Amino acid sequence: MTGPMVVDSKGGEAVVDNAKMTLLAMFLVGLSANSGLLFGYDTGVVSGAMLLIKKEMELTDFWHELIVSGTIGAAWAFSLCGGYLTDKWGRRRTILTAAVIFTVGSLIMGFATNKEMLLAGRIVVGVGVGLASMSTPMYMAECCAPKYRGVLVTIYTLGATSGQFVAGIVSGLFSDVTDGWRWMLGLAAVPSIALLVGFMFLPESPRWLVSRGRVDEAEDVLQRLRGRDVSVHQELKGIRESCEEDQRRKAELHNVNVPLRILRTPHARRALFLGAALAGYQQLAGINTAMYYSATIIKMAGVGSNSAAIWLSAGTAGVNCVCTVVGMFVVDRMGRRVLTLCSLFGAGVSLAILGGGFLMMDHTAPKITETSALAGACAAYMTCGECTSTRHTCGFCMLGNGTGSCWPFDKDSELALGGACMTPAGADLAAGAEWAVGYCPSDYSWVAVAGLVIYLFCFAPGMGPAPWVINSEVHPLWARDVSNSISTSTNWLFNLIVSLSFLSLVDEIEAYGAFFLFSAVTFTGVVLFWFIMPETKGLTLEEIQGLFGADMEKTGATGDGSKPPHNNIQVVKTIEL
């Protein structure tokens, strides 16, 4: 039995989409997921590792944010040049380069002797992450058959969320080990070496080969990817026509640089705006705040033990991973548009719940009822929140009779240096007493943790993969490298801004204010994408260009002879960007 019929976007004969998953295609998918795992592992492991590193290296909030953001800043910078490299070197060689760089950076972090060396390792890793995050989804989209493309590109995101979960497990296992953070960070070299070795055996993208005039090689690659018993002539013809059109337009506009040409071409400009907006809102919705600082957020919510906070953050990463699997099965059934809108709306609601949990904790936080001149600067604080702020080296001592006091603590052991909670190392506190460093005891901790879990449940299936899937589909071939580079760098830029400012934002407007702000911004994204996002499921890459182009406005067709749905293609066409 043959697959569904797909009408060629240029009016040619129908193509039977009967491509199957060959062993080579499955190997490609597995390695591309491993590329996502590198990104996910780095995102997840820093959450737990930083709890240990901050204590050992006595980091300020600024250095905490700087080390977390070092990778992100480097990834942003090198995603900007990623478009040039994927066009010049090819997708495959760019991914190989990224794997080598990531391996070197992981080893530097594992052997770091001070905060400066650790920051250097984070920056080197960021270079590899930036190149891989830009080139891998593009490579997968150009190698996948149209009917598998949505699911397979989503596998990159599954790899990322799986990496976060693996990082959580590894962090938990090493949380009580001496120098455990070195193992957490250094083990990232294992999947990067696997990626390096594996991609040595994979072919280049057929679209890149055609663009370089290597048509025979491209046909051979397509045949190996689709199966020897499947005809690839019509698919190759479509790729050649796209590349020839690209070359023709480049010859006509040889003195115009590509970014400027994108801005002057309406359909390319619309596609770039959508792709960059999705990439930006993925970060503005707070996902990597939740992942980079998950253990810190959980500890702020009232979980006192570092080890317990790290294991709970591993649990939230597991929720993220499972829900991404759900996204794989619905992305090509529900469609990109509906899935994205529902996901973003749910994320906004759950961020409000998360903020509400911290607000309840703040309003019910125990008060300081006893002060002593022996407490020094800690005696000036009147609430548990002020006392345990990360800006101060003070902890909160709460006794069973309801009294509370603020005292300084030893930076190495985090034991109280005065008051009723001062005990010898290894000794237990009095019955009913609790010594809190970096958090306030609360009966509402579960609300914040539940809000975090609900947030990941809503975000992961839709807004997790959507920006990568859409950006791999919507850009015309001549603009694909540069547009993907701009969208990816937009993602990293907002990632950098959010991660570099989160702890400072919490200090200024409290945790509940920060999450209420993320919620409000997320709802603006729901409104924006309602008006500008079309549906792309089931269409070839060439047909998708018509969703943003003048030809589709004239015909009103979607590529298969049907009329475009309301609030989809027609809405996109009426917005002048």
In DSSP terms (H or I, runs of 4 or more residues), the helix count works out at 24
Q: Can you list the strand order of the major beta sheet?
A: 4-3-5
Uncertain runs: 1-16, 552-576
Main beta sheet strand tally, sense and closure: 3 strands, antiparallel
Provide the β-strand percentage band: under 5%
Question: What is the distance, rounded to the nearest whole angstrom, between the alpha carbons of the first and last residues?
Answer: 44 Å
* Helical content (DSSP H or I, runs of 4+): 55-70%
Determine the mean pLDDT: 79
Provide the gyration radius in Å.
26 Å
Structural class: mainly alpha
Task: Please provide the ordered H/E string of secondary-structure elements.
Answer: EEHHHHHHHHHHHHHHHHHHEEEHHHHHH
Total beta strand runs: 5
Form type: elongated
Keywords: Membrane, Transmembrane, Transmembrane helix, Transport
Protein name: Proton myo-inositol cotransporter
InterPro entries: MFS_dom (IPR020846), MFS_sugar_transport-like (IPR005828), MFS_trans_sf (IPR036259), Myo-inositol_Transporter (IPR050814), Sugar/inositol_transpt (IPR003663), Sugar_transporter_CS (IPR005829)
Domain Major facilitator superfamily (MFS) profile: 28-537
Describe this structure in words.
- It is a single chain.
- The strands form 2 sheets. A 3-stranded antiparallel beta sheet has the order 4-3-5, with no helix packed on it. The chain has a two-stranded antiparallel sheet with strand order 1-2.
- The protein has 577 residues and is an all-alpha fold.
- The radius of gyration is 26 Å and the shape is elongated.
- The two termini are 44 Å apart.
- Helix content is 68%, strand content 3%.
- Keywords: Membrane, Transmembrane, Transmembrane helix, Transport.
- Belongs to the major facilitator superfamily. Sugar transporter (TC 2.A.1.1) family.
- It is found in: Membrane.
- This is Proton myo-inositol cotransporter.
